Structures are given as structure tokens and as C-alpha cells.
């Protein structure tokens, strides 16, 4: 599974975790994805969608 939203294409972001002593190590921020049934071209389809797209109404859920 790729960590990418099917609607807005939000994906993993990379950066540094910085400790109290200021030592750096690599880390990643992963998008909050949910596997939902959405309507695509009039047909229901399962896709991974981020919760921001679900909350803002960019996706029509298939029931």
C-alpha cells in the first residue's frame, strides 16, 4: 500500500527528530489515511483517502 491519498495526493513527509540534547535522527510523518468506499465516475470503488478530504467533503462516500 502506498501511503498516498487518492484525492489530494498527500503522501509521506520526511524530516529530523531532534532530541533534548539536539541530536538528530531521521523520522517520517505519515498521512492519516482511511480505506473507504467512494463514488468514482458513478461507480463505487475502494480507495485510501486522508481524513482531511473526508472531513472537508471532497469525497462522495458510497453507501
TrEMBL record:
Gene3D superfamilies: Ribosomal protein L28/L24 (2.30.170.40)
A GO cellular component entry from the record: ribonucleoprotein complex
Alphabetically ordered keywords of this record: Ribonucleoprotein, Ribosomal protein
Entry's Gene Ontology BP terms: translation
UniProt-recorded Gene Ontology molecular function terms: structural constituent of ribosome
Cross-referenced Pfam families: Ribosomal_L28 (PF00830)
NCBIfam families to which the protein is assigned, alphabetical: L28
Family: Belongs to the bacterial ribosomal protein bL28 family.
Protein name: Large ribosomal subunit protein bL28
Lineage, uppermost ranks: Bacteria, Bacillati, Bacillota, Clostridia, Thermoanaerobacterales
Gene name for this UniProt entry: rpmB
Amino acid at each position: 500500500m502506498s501511503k498516498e491519498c487518492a484525492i489530494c495526493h498527500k503522501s509521506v513527509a520526511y524530516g529530523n527528530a531532534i532530541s533534548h540534547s539536539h541530536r538528530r535522527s531521521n523520522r517520517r510523518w505519515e498521512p492519516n489515511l482511511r480505506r473507504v468506499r467512494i463514488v468514482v465516475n458513478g461507480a463505487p470503488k475502494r480507495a485510501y483517502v486522508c481524513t482531511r478530504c473526508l472531513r472537508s467533503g471532497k469525497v462522495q462516500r458510497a453507501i
